Amino acid sequence: MALEKAQSHLERKGLADRIIITEKSSATVAEAAAALGCEPGMIAKTLSFLQEGRPILILAEGMARIDNKKYKARFGCKAKMIPGDQVGPLTGHEVGGVCPFGVNEGVPVYLDESLKLHETVYPAAGTDHSAVRLSISELEEATDFTEWVDVCKLPEV
Predict the structure, then answer these.
(1) What would the pLDDT profile of 102-143 be if each residue is shown by its tens digit?
(2) Residue range(s) defining the domain that contains residue 68
(3) 66: which strand partners?
(4) 3-state percent breakdown (helix, strand, coil) of the chain, nearest 5
């Protein structure tokens, strides 16, 4: 069902042909990068948070982590991830396939600046065996995002 929701959303945007179904799991950044043959940073992971009981989604570069100070400065609250058993009912997609396409009505999607490090990114497409190959401008078009935010930090090299 989740893949169909994502596919329907992407069809409306003219991007359904970008969906990739993988033989291997794409549930984690490492698994997705291996399944797709790309750098882990090119995986656009979708992080799910609760704010005053309401879900939000933030897409970030695969190796990025939430910076709690930046998050609190931007959203005015502490970053609180959605418990795993509540992710599906609140967002419309289960853990391992959470994506910004075909989400439940009223769930805002934010894009983190860390994604701009890559020309092409691969967010999930609703399942733990799927992805979508998109340029940054196509990602903007496909997600109906609320705005770009800067709430992540990258690991030190």
Answers:
(1) 999 999 999 999 999 999 999 999 999 999 999 999 999 999
(2) 2-147
(3) 152
(4) 35, 25, 40
